[in-house]
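# nightly structure sweep
# worker-07 picked up a monomer target from the shared queue
# config: single-sequence mode, recycle default, output format = structure tokens
# input follows
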Amino acid sequence: MAEEIAPIWLTAIAAKRLRDGIAVAILGPPNAGKSSILNHLARREAAITFADRGTTRDVIEVAIDLAGYPGVLGPIRGLRDSADVIEQEGLRGP
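# output follows
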């Protein structure tokens, strides 16, 4: 019975991935250009970019087309210690 269900289960997982999109996290240290890469791939200014470290404070997600497949891109905040109260809240995360 398990052998009969396995192909159906794998098809359902693949269908869910296509429906929901592929999640891609952009990782790197603070001020490495993660938001700039996101903006370039999104072909718009989806994230604020600035020379100062710690600009990305909120979770940003951008829906894009990845070679015909739906995808969701998001830069991950670079982790570091900060005395800035707003940045500390952003680093705390959801």
